Amino acid sequence: MSHWFHRNCLKATGPLDTKHLTPVLTSQKANQIVNELKQKRAQLISKMGDLLSDPRSTPAIDEYLTIIRGFVQSAEGGASPLQELLKFRWTQSLGTREPEVQKCAIYEVANICVNVGLWYMKRAAKVASTNNYCEADAKEVHTCLRTAAGVFEYVLDKVAPNLDGSQLEDWHDCAVPVLQAYKLECTAEAQEVTVARAIELKHKPDLISALAHETSKLFSDADTSLRECNTEYVTKWRRYLQSKIKFYAAYARSFQGEFLLTQDKCGESIKTLQEAQKLYKEAQGLCKQYENASGNAVGEVRPAKHPFFQKLGPIIDLRLQKSERENGFIYYQKVPEDLPELELKATYGLVAPLPFEVPPVHPIFTEEAYKDFTIQQTPGPKITSSDKDDLPPAKETEIGGDTSNIKNDSGCSIQ
Length: 415
Fold this sequence. Notes:
Elements: H1 28-47, H2 60-68, E1 88-90, E2 100-102, H3 105-127, H4 135-159, H5 176-200, H6 205-225, H7 231-262, H8 266-292, H9 307-310, H10 312-331, H11 367-371
Antiparallel strand pairs: 1-2
Helix pairs in contact: 1-2, 3-4, 4-5, 5-6, 6-7, 7-8, 7-10, 8-10
């Protein structure tokens, strides 16, 4: 079984400890808020990783975020007096099972949102992993990936700047390089859907070339974001991104070569298709490196075994043979030493993240409700050595699926 999308693990978390709140919860309203928080959090955590459920139709996401937001800010928009009332434990999608622990509700919002983004990514991979595919499935994959990109963009722009960066390693999920890489990867993968559809609908080769070129650049930007991160944790992820860079660069040159031949530029077509062959071989080498690299990936991901990858090589070979044959019979053009310039910007089909926002503070958080928490009577939660004990991995549904019998032109099930 050969999946197309690399996926890191879901983040694991521990249950909320509220024992220290006994002297604080002196009213029914305060008890209600804490109980709602624990209940909605547990419901959301239990649903994450269920890839049979569509996160777009999961009310538990907003139901929890609207309550935890009351611990971040007040209904009037100022800082909530409850920000440091609880401690939260989260593992990293790239790291070990040892959690990071912080007494900060902003930290909780950031990690919940990152896990929501990962959930959307995994749902997209689940839907894309079958050959029984229809247009509605393609739209869901596209929407899930754009939504995930928007979630990571939200954390990157509006949540991460408010975190204590001194407590973050460069490979942690809330670190800027990792958030940026996730956002760019999701955007690039959504654009893969666009490229595959353009191929299946036989759009003009110059448009497909430009789209593939832009997709390669997005994967390249994602890889660049991870360049300074600890290699122990990001090597496998980077090899995946690098293989996609070369793969879509090969696609861009392949369709450019086809387009140049239609413009009677046979010599340039040959040069371009020779470059496509070279890039495709480099992509094959990176796929092998990816398969052998250690990392925190989920599932058996072998891009080079996927029909979408395997069909490109023969397509390039046939196009090159055609250009060489036509040049020998008709054009007699010299093959240039320099490669023709690629179209720098596609005019259609470029993908942008879908905007994401955490819902407003729940109406339960009134000025009187905050006063019901007698915060001055407790020193707050203590972080102990046991808080650093390993957490069990988050439960995840297998992506599954079967892409071995795809029969269409491109070899891609995303149509």
